[in-house]
Amino acid sequence: MEPHPSTSDQAFLADLRRHRAELRESMSALEDALAAPATAPPWAPRLHAALVELAADFRTHIDITEGPNGLYSDLLKTSPRLSESVASLIREHALICRQVDNLLARVTASDGIEDVDRVRDLGMAILGRLVRHRQRGSDLVFEAYEFDIGGET
């Protein structure tokens, strides 16, 4: 059994929990934008804004987890047995970034209204991948620290 996190670790995990909630909010904004009527004139701009917000929040997530003083660095020092789980999450980061960037480029190039069903399918695929990624990340933190990062609003 791993030791419980120190006070500084707890502060870091509290920050992680806050950011996790922000990422969930941007995921919710994307879901709402995708579900809005595409015939309404602000659909594409709203979708674009939600994607930009999600991209920024996800890049912050990557910085927090992969950075030199990030979560994964700490996890690998204290729990090297989790290295494959960390490597898998890092690979997912690259995949999710590509998916978000591709959808953002598609929406920017065509205002998203050229192929609404395809845009929605791609957006929902991103959301599904993000949900699974967040679950695996939460499981990893719990396994390392026996601490639930939650972050749900």
Description of the structure:
The protein is an all-alpha fold. It has a single domain, classed as Four Helix Bundle (Hemerythrin (Met), subunit A) (Up-down Bundle), CATH 1.20.120. The chain is built from five helices and no strands. The longest helix has 30 residues. 24% of the residues are buried. The mean pLDDT is 87. It comes from Nocardioides gansuensis.
Features of the shown structure:
153 residues; Four Helix Bundle (Hemerythrin (Met), subunit A); elongated
Spans of at least 5 consecutive residues whose pLDDT stays below 50 are none
Report how far the terminal alpha carbons are from each other: 30 Å
Percent of residues in beta strands:
under 5%
Just name the CATH architecture: Up-down Bundle
Spatial extent as radius of gyration: 17 Å
Number of strands: 0
For the sheet with most strands, the description reads: none
Give the topology string: H per helix, E per strand: HHHHH
Figure out the total of helices: 5
- The coarse overall form would be elongated
Overall mean pLDDT: 87
Q: What is the CATH T-level topology?
A: Four Helix Bundle (Hemerythrin (Met), subunit A)
Number of domains: 1
State the name of the first-level CATH class: Mainly Alpha
**Proportion of residues in helical segments:** over 70%
Structural class: mainly alpha
Protein name: Hemerythrin-like domain-containing protein
Organism: Nocardioides gansuensis
